[in-house]
Specification:
Arc Repressor Mutant, subunit A; elongated; mainly alpha
Length: 189
């Protein structure tokens, strides 16, 4: 009798993530995952009881990738870089962006994405353009800018490949962010 094939949870998550990254959630199945692992579906169940148990782990991995994009230095301005990274992720990793924003996975994406919001907020604790604003006002500015960036990210995600470039993303995030910040500062007075 041949030995049983065993996989680590990390390997199963990695292969599941790769399927979602290349083909989206609809392509993720026990059979597809088994094919990626070069085995029958049975060993997968030694790590996860169901595909529904695997999906949150894949979303955590996707959110980690998104955070990597958002903390990359692009302009040297961390607040702008957070927005730029979010839109770049949507443009460059279309299926991953959609996978955390679809109806079936949005709540998990939001829950795990809260860590990004908290980390980005903490990174901006001494951000000079926010000086003089209360925590509530800063939250309001960040929320409005996130809504702008989120809409822009969907545009970048669905635009024909190569039509939304890095320079365009930087320009629009800079202009939109400044307009939101300055407009809200005037409102707060």
């Amino acid at each position: 009798m041949p030995p049983k094939i065993k996989f680590t949870k990390e390997l199963v998550i990695k292969k599941g993530y790769e399927i979602v990254r290349k083909k989206g959630w609809n392509a993720l199945s026990t059979r597809a995952l088994a094919a990626e692992l070069g085995s029958s579906p049975i060993p997968i169940y030694s790590c996860f009881n169901s595909m529904q148990e695997l999906e949150p782990e894949i979303i955590k991995k996707i959110v980690d990738i998104l955070q990597d994009y958002m903390v990359r230095e692009v302009t040297g301005d961390p607040w702008l870089d957070h927005g730029i990274g979010y839109v770049l992720f949507a443009a460059e990793e279309r299926l991953l962006f959609l996978s955390i924003n679809d109806a079936d996975h949005f709540e998990l994406g939001r829950r795990y994405g809260q860590r990004i919001w908290d980390d980005c907020t903490n990174a901006l604790a001494d951000y000079p353009p926010f000086s003089g604003l209360s925590n509530e006002q800063i939250y309001n500015v960040q929320l409005k800018r996130w809504m702008f960036a989120h809409g822009f990210a969907f545009h970048a995600c669905f635009a024909p490949k190569g039509t939304v470039g890095v320079e365009q993303i930087i320009l629009h995030i800079r202009e939109g962010s400044n307009a939101i910040l300055e407009g809200l500062k005037r409102q707060f007075q």
